[in-house]
């Protein structure tokens, strides 16, 4: 490959990695902000188990945001090292970028899975054993 093509591929890879980090930070921040904003409505009658899951989600989304910032800082450091003469910019991602990027994705996916579990558990715990939900309606509408 000629040097210009290599440079263009490297620039595109760094831009895409930076964009992925930004998107996951944005999504994590949005879910975190919305779920915290509506906590009073969401947790008012929730059992202790689902509350723990929601708090774990918040922690994981917060970690995802932190790992995303770390990734973006590592990308910047890779593109502009402290001493560019002694250490020219690399066109590959080292462990300094791969580790926080992988941790960001893992934290985001786990938080998303747990928030789905929280929603599922919250709906299930609202039903009472006598076949009525907390509003007094029959949960099994097929018997009507």
Describe the structure.
- The chain has about 140 residues and is mainly alpha-helical.
- The chain has one domain (about 5-85, about 95-130).
- Helix content is about 70%, strand content about 0%.
- It has four helices and no strands.
- It has helices spanning about 5-35, 40-45, 50-80, 95-125.
- The longest helix has about 35 residues, at about 5-35.
- The radius of gyration is 22 Å and the shape is elongated.
- Residues about 140-144 have low confidence and may be disordered.
Order of helices and strands: HHHH
Q: Let me know the number of strands.
A: 0
Mean pLDDT: 81
User: Major beta sheet, specifics?
Assistant: none
Distance between the termini: 71 Å
Helix content: over 70%
Low-confidence stretches: 139-144
Helical segment tally? 4
Q: Please give the domain count.
A: 1
Structural class: mainly alpha
Radius of gyration: 22 Å
Shape descriptor = elongated
Strand content: under 5%
List descriptors.
144 residues, mainly alpha
Strand-helix topology:
Elements: H1 3-37, H2 39-43, H3 48-79, H4 95-125
Helix pairs in contact: 1-3, 1-4, 3-4
